[in-house]
Amino acid sequence: MRLVGDNIENPGVVPLSAALKLADEMELDLVEISPNADPPVCKIIDYQKFLYQQKKKQKEIKAKTVKVVIKEIRFGPNTDEHDFNFKLNHAKKFLSDGAKIKAFVFFKGRTILFKEKGEILLLRLAQELEDYGKVEQMPKLEGKRMTMFIAPKALKKNK
C-alpha cells in the first residue's frame, strides 16, 4: 500500500504489516484514504482528531449559511395614505435588514370587487421600494388575498 502523511520520513509503497507497525510506534491510526487506487492509499493520523476537525468544519459551514427571513405586511384595499407610508417605512427597514417581504392585500366580504385597487396599491409599494429591493413575484390573487414578494437588493460594502 502507498503510505502518505505529514510526519512520515519516507512516504511510498510499503507492505501492510510495516505500515501498521509504523503507526503503532507513532501511537497514531492507519486510515485508508483511497481504497480503489492501485495500490491503496493510507495515511497515518490521529483519527479522533481528524473526526473532530471534520465536525468542526461542518459546524462552520452550517453557521455561514444564510437564513432567509420573510416579513409580512398586510394592507386592505382601501388603505389610507398615512397607513401606507407607515407600512412603507417598515418595509424599507425590513429590506435594509436583509429580510424578504411578503406584502398582501386582504379582501374581506364584498371588498373583493376592488381587486384593481389592491393591485395598484401593491404596485405602488413595489415602485416606492425600488431602491431597497426587487420584486420576486408580481401581485397574484389567491382566494381572498393578493400577494407580492419583494427580495432585498444585495448590500454593497464600502471599503
Throw out a few tags for this protein.
159 residues; alpha/beta; Ubiquitin-like (UB roll); 2 domains; four-stranded mixed sheet
Give an overview in words.
The protein is of the alpha/beta class. It folds into two domains: 2-61, Ubiquitin-like (UB roll), CATH 3.10.20; 70-152, Translation Initiation Factor IF3 (2-Layer Sandwich). It is built from four helices and eight strands. It has helices spanning 16-25, 47-64, 81-96, 115-128, and strands at residues 2-4, 12-13, 29-34, 41-45, 70-75, 100-106, 133-142, 145-152. A four-stranded mixed β-sheet has the order 2-1-4-3. Strands 5-6-8-7 form a four-stranded mixed β-sheet, with helices on one face. A hairpin with a 6-residue loop joins β3 (29-34) and β4. The mean pLDDT is 86.
Summarize the topology:
Blueprint lengths: L1 E3 L7 E2 L2 H10 L3 E6 L6 E5 L1 H18 L5 E6 L5 H16 L3 E7 L8 H14 L4 E10 L2 E8 L7
Parallel strand pairs: 1-4, 5-6
Antiparallel strand pairs: 1-2, 3-4, 6-8, 7-8
Task: Summarize the entry for a quick read.
The protein is α/β, with parallel strands linked by helices and 159 residues long. Helix content is 36%, strand content 30%. It folds into two domains: 2-61, Ubiquitin-like (UB roll), CATH 3.10.20.80; 70-152, Translation Initiation Factor IF3 (2-Layer Sandwich).
Instruction: Based on Cα principal axes, name the global outline.
Output: rod-shaped
Radius of gyration: 30 Å
In CATH, what is the homologous superfamily of the largest domain? Translation initiation factor 3 (IF-3), C-terminal domain
Q: What portion of residues belong to β-strands?
A: 25-35%
**Which percent bin holds the helix content?**
25-40%
Structural class: alpha/beta
Q: What is the H/E order?
A: EEHEEHEHEHEE
Integer average pLDDT = 86
Indicate the CATH topology of the largest domain. Translation Initiation Factor IF3
Separate helix tally: 4
Broad CATH class of the largest domain: Alpha Beta
Count of spatially separate domains? 2
If classified by CATH, what would the architecture of the largest domain be? 2-Layer Sandwich
Give the strand order of the largest sheet, numbering strands 1, 2, ... along the chain. 2-1-4-3
Unreliable stretches (pLDDT < 50, length at least 5) are none
Report, as a whole number of angstroms, the end-to-end distance. Answer: 52 Å
Reported for the largest beta sheet, the result is: 4 strands, mixed
Give a count of the beta strands, DSSP E runs of length 2 or more. 8
